[in-house]
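Standup notes
- DV: blocked on the single-chain target, sequence here:
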Amino acid sequence: MKPFEIHRATKCRAKLRLGMSGAAGSGKTYSALLIAEGLGGRIGMIDTEHGSGDLYADLLPDGYDVLRLEPPFTPGRYIEAIHALEAAGAQTIIIDSLSHAWNGEGGSLDRHGKIADRSGNSWQAWRQVTPEHNALVEAILQSPCHVIATMRAKTEYVQEKDERTGRQIVRKIGLAPVMRDGIEYEFTIFMELDSQHLAHVGKDRTRLFDGQIIRPEIQTGRELLAWLDSGAQEPVRTGLPEAQRASLRQAIEQAPGIDDLYKAFAHAYRAANALQDLAALDEFTHAKDDRKAVLEAQHEGEQPAHA
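- DV (later): unblocked, structure below
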């Protein structure tokens, strides 16, 4: 067992991990683009909203790139999209929106339901789906780019009194993000946007906007960048040692079942992500897809023929 390592706490330079949730019309995409512009550099957007990512093409002076992600919205396809934008030279990646990876076609809830229907075991289905979801979270956390992820919020309407007119009005509010419970804890900052395009900053490890209500703008990104760039330079990371890489790949290639495959893949993915070894990540992903195809074909062959 590896011994514990104790070190003096040191603030190092970091990349932004920003989560934004809000109901339809709260300005998630618009706000994300403004903050990304303040961060500087090339911007790439993963658009799952049927081409809405192109609607703001004239917003930023230097524009931005769009990768349109179509169904199925599996965590694996999100990971591939993240890597594609990294390889294309993006310095900030906007995921618009992350909610489809959870409740969209092919997302984690959809996959869980289909697996549970086939097996009759909901718990067993989560054992297969959870590693896929965790791998996506790891891809976001370990990306060498800034990452801004928007999420839809569950919508509710409330009736309240207008202070100016005294009349009762109906107002739309956003509640919890449409994503797995606790997703807020994975981000450096988490903002909840309302119908007035104002953001309540409920979590902020930078402490720049903690507990405040702000209007996200380009200057917000600039202030965040200044904080992220302050501190010590992170140590240079090398890739996975060849022996470890081969061992992790072999575990994927020889996985006896789907559950074992996703456990092996999640383990390999975390190891490669920790060192930002993109070549190993690509290798593990292809090995996982190949082994999955073999296991699914074997499973289909074992199914009893229908009369």
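- Follow-up: The mean pLDDT is 88.
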